[in-house]
Structure formats: structure tokens, C-alpha cells
Amino acid sequence: MCGIVGYTGHREAVPVLIDGLRRLEYRGYDSAGIVVPENGGLVLEKRAGTLDVLEQALSNSRFPATSGIGHTRWATHGAPTDVNAHPHTDCGGRFAVVHNGIIENYRQLRNWLKAEGHVFKSDTDTEVLPHLIEHYYRDDLYQAVRRALEQIEGSFAVLTLVTTEPGRLIVARRDSPLVVGLGEGENFIASDIPALLTYTRDTYLLNDGEMAEVTPDFIKVSDLNGNPVHKEIFCVNWECEQAEKGGYEHFMLKEIHEQPRALRDTLRGRIDQDGRRVVLKELNVDPDTVRNLKKIFITACGTAFHAGVVGKYIIEKMTRIPVEVDIASEFRYRDPLINPGDLVVVVSQSGETADTRAALREARRRGAHVIAITNVVGSSVAREADDVLYTWAGPEIAVASTKAYITQLAAFYLLALWLAGERGTLPDDEREAILHALREIDTGVSTLLADADQIAALAQRYKDQHGLFFIGRGLDFAVAMEGSLKLKEISYIHAEAYPAGELKHGTLALITEGVPVIALATQPDLFEKALSNVKEVKARGAEVVALTFEGHHDIEDLGDHLVYLPATHPVLAPILAVVPLQLFAYYAAIARGCSVDKPRNLAKSVTVE
Ligand code: F6R
Q: Residue 461: is it exposed, middle or buried by C-beta count within 10 angstroms (0-12/13-18/19+)?
């Protein structure tokens, strides 16, 4: 995610802003910028690349201004370029804005503002904000920002300033964090606490729907309607490293807990207002191609491949188009039988994985239309594909992928429902029921996260095991694969995922007294079959952890431990079922003293074959 800093006080603002941005570097970014009011105008400097590039650009001048705002950008709308970097300004160069979040209705607003005569410089959604503020400004920035934000659908943390009121910053948030740091004769604003810790530990944590007027001497907090809000001071007692992780012990745990927010961002703006259809404006596949689709291929590596396996099941189920799913390093060399007009979906968090890139090129060479599901705007995969479905998970720092996976799943549900809608292969009421449940799935994930202690206790129990099995059928098997990989890569416990019905063809020989088996049984049509597999392993002495929806009494009698998923449409079970498995891997790794965020032998981005 992007980083925001703001300062108003008695010091020179530029070094304070740069220092704050440096402390947010760990989050990942692709461009950076600052703006300060000076001599009745704005001094604006922004650059694609690292903060060093920005500092270099600033190095020959000194700026006496004592207020300003700064930003590190992780590109969403528009490539990572100088022009698209924040801050953004209005036509007259009087208002400057930095923004985290996504403005869903920016296209409509942009068209309207253009018709009003506003001239846009960038491809970003953010740029509508300074123009809206310019439109509403009547000598009071606070009121203009309030009016502008009334027009915005989506999420935001914003900092704004105007040349005519230097020293007065107006800030606001909805669904994107923002913290005000309290100083003496100076105040600070940031998207994250580490940016403030050099200067203060006293903060106001703004809540969703709150805004604040910040000057060197006072901070007035209100809601977005202008009603005053009383804030208690929150004193931060974290050290810097802990603060970078948002108070969590590891990035992985932080990212697991970010999943409800990440899911909301993936779905945002992609389901129509009345919740009946998926709208994927970013796809340029023409309706005829969709109607005539004969075959879909999905290809990816590791965790992204596991998301692809879920993708295969749900696309086939909802659209009746045959789907092949391949590991990219296999796909690229197996001479796949792709025909022009086939659809190939490549999945990659980083968008830089060498095998996935090669698979993408192979698919294009053979005339397929390629859709990339990726997290990194402007990545190689995003640039080389015909169309891109961004996951908007925000930067993932832990090597083990969690929020990227869950948002890849969400992207696949959107794609499958969109294809089904275009082809008319799913009854309307069924599609709407799934969409309804999808819109609420983030709350199910939050419920599971609130029960992490139960999973931590299970991890403690099994931490010294030499091996574990994950079994399931259909979608449950797809999730079992991901659960098994997560456990292996960070706890170094050997684990295998097995299609439950396949055990008796060999692997059952390994099920002996006390061997832990994590059995996923979430699919109503396969439940009885899954149950008989649980009986099979129980009869050989296995200790079963059953993962199911509440109300399955038979499995309740068989499982030694039960993990319940909150109710949802069963086809969406993977989004919920993976959460306890991620937590299980995390707590097992902790219990074994492993390096969770940087497991041995692994790198975050595999750019070599
Ligand atoms: C496992 C993990 C890896 C990646 C794989 C592909 O937790 O993160 O298996 O999923 O290396 O990476 P991307 O998605 O960047 O192509």
C-alpha cells in the first residue's frame, strides 16, 4: 500500500517528510513525491523509482516551508511514472493532494470535471480529488474537502493543502488508515505509525469516516459531515520494528489479518450496484470470443497455482467450459494444445516470476488471449498480457503468500461469475446468491481470525510431528494443497495434500497411530464421501482435525478436533477454509522457532528459471 506523511510546525518540512517516507519504505513502493507551499505557490517534486531518486532531485535547493505533504506510491490506476506519482494538483496549481485507496467512481467524476473545463495530467484515480476541491473551494479548505469527499465512492486516506492557507492541512479517511501525531507547536500525519515515531508517541488514531483540520497549534477532529468528534490520545509503546508490522509479531501475521480489507479492495467496483452482475471493465475480451470459448488454460507457480486449481473447479462448474490448469514450468515446455481464440489466465502475485512470464509468452505466441491476475501494477506480466485483473492486495512482504492468494481466489470468483453471466450458464438466482455471499465473505474471514487461539493451540499440539496429511475432495483438495505448502515452507514440517479418495491407492500405508490428518469437508455434494475417508484414516489410528461448516454432526463424532467455518455459499468455502490453514502454518512455525517471514532457501520473487 501507499504511504502518506504530512507535517505542519516550525521545522523545515522537506526533511521531516523525507524521513517519514523513509520509515515507510519497508511497505514497498514504486514512486515518491512531496509538495510544500512556498511564496504563494507550490513546490512539487515527484519521481518514479526510489526515495533516493526523489532526494537527488531535491538536493540542489533548500525549502524554508514549514508544512507539506508526501507520499510513496504503489501503483494502482496508471503505471508507475513521474506524472502518476503523488502529490496531485488542480488546474491552477493551488491545491495538492496525496491519497491512499481506490476511487471507484473516478471515471464518472473525471468525465464530469473535464466537461466543466478541468484539465487532467495523470492516469490516476486520485487526480479527481484536487480538481473536485478546486471546484468546491470558497476560501475554506475544510469545507471544500468535505464536499469533494461526498462525491467519492471507494476508499481513501487523504491529506490536502492549499497555497492560501499554508500551515493548515485537512485530512480524512475511509477504509484506509490515518494517524495524527501530536507535537508541541507542530503536528504530524501518517498512514502508519513508524513514520511518526522519531517525533512523537502521542497520537489520535482516526476512525473510518473521520476527518481533521491540523495546524501547528491545534487538531480539530470531526466526522465527514462536520460534526465534532472527541478523540482520546493513544500513546504508542511499540518500537519501530514492531510498528512496521502494525503491532503484529511478523509481516505474515499482519498480512493474514489484512485479508478482510484486501478482499474488499479486490471486489470493490467490480459488482454492480444491485449486486446482480460482475462488471469487469478492465477486460477487453469481445462478447463473441466469450460466447465461443472452447477452452481455458490457467497457469502459475506455487501458491498462485493453487489459486488456479480453485479457478479451474469454479470456472468449469459455473461456465461448463473445459479448463486445464498447469504449473507454469511444465506448461511452457509441454507443447500445450492451445488454439487461437482460447483463453489463458496467468496468475502471479509479483508479476515477475520467470516461468509464469515464459508461459504467458508461449500462450500469446500460440494466439491465445491472455488475462493476467496479478498484484503488482506495471509488472512484466501486467505489461505483457492482453488484459489484467489486479488483485489490489497491497504489497506482500512475507515470503509466504497469504493475502495475495485469498485475493487471487476472489479474482477467480469474479472471473467465473462474469463468464457465467456473459454466457448465461448459471441461473440468475444462483449467480446472485453467490455474489451476495461473496460481498459478505470478508466478515467470515474476520470471524475466523478472531478465533486464532484455537488454531494456535492445535499448532502447538502438532509442532513436533514429522509429517501431516491434508485431505479433501474437489475444492477442498485445492485448498488442502495450499495448506500443505504453507506448512512446509515456513515450519519445515513435511506435509502432503491428497485427494481424499486417492489415499487407498497407496498413501494410506503411511497413516498409522497418531498421524495427524487435516480433513476438509465443506462441500455438501461430497460430504458423505469425505466422511468415509475420515473413517478410513480414523480406523488406522489417525488423529483427525476436521474443517467443516457447522451442523455436520457425523463428522463431529469422528473428528478429534473440529474447526468450524462461518456459514457462506459452499462454493466460496476455499476463501474461508484457507484462513485456519494459514494460521496453523504460522503458529506451527512460531512454535518451532522458525524464521517466519524469511524461510530458508526461499525468495519472495523467483525471477530465474
Ligand atoms: C508460497 C509462495 C510461492 C509463490 C510462487 C509464485 O507462499 O509465495 O509459491 O506463490 O513463487 O509467485 P508469484 O505469485 O509472484 O508468481
A: middle
Of the candidates 92, 168, 167, the residue with the CA atom closest to the CA atom of residue 130: 92
Tens-place pLDDT, residues 220-262: 999 999 999 999 998 887 777 777 888 899 999 999 999 999 9
Q: What domains does the chain contain, in order, with CATH numbers?
A: 3-237 (3.60.20.10), 251-441 (3.40.50.10490), 451-609 (3.40.50.10490)
Q: Calculate ∠ Cα 602-606-607, nearest 5°.
A: 150
Report cis status (omega within 30 of 0) of the bond before 566.
no
Cα 369 to Cα 57, 275, 345, 372, 439: the distances in Å are: 41, 28, 8, 10, 29
Ligand 1 pocket, mutate which of 606, 607, 608 (most atoms under 8 A from CB): 606
Q: Which of 353, 407, 479 best tests ligand 1's pocket when mutated (most atoms within 8 Å of CB)?
A: 353
Answer for the pair 217, 185: CB distance below 8 angstroms, yes or no: yes
The model's pLDDT over 124-133, given as tens digits with 9 standing for 90+, comes to: 999 999 999 9
Q: Which helix (H) or strand (E) holds 52?
A: helix 51-58
Phi/psi of residue 441, nearest 5 degrees? -65, -30
Rg (CA), the chain: 25
Which is nearest to 71 in space by CA: 80, 63, 62?
Answer: 80
Cα 477 to middle of ligand 1, angstroms:
19
Per-residue cell: 359? 508461459
67 pocket-lining for ligand 1 (C-beta < 6 Å):
no
348: Cβ below 6 Å to ligand 1?
A: yes
User: In whole angstroms, how far apart are CA 489 and each of 140, 495, 517, 597?
Assistant: 55, 10, 18, 10
Looking at the DSSP assignment, which residues form a beta bridge with residue 497? 470
Q: What does pTM read for this prediction?
A: 0.83
Tell how far the Cα of 333 is from the centroid of ligand 1, in angstroms. Answer: 20
Cα separation, 154 vs 493, whole angstroms: 42
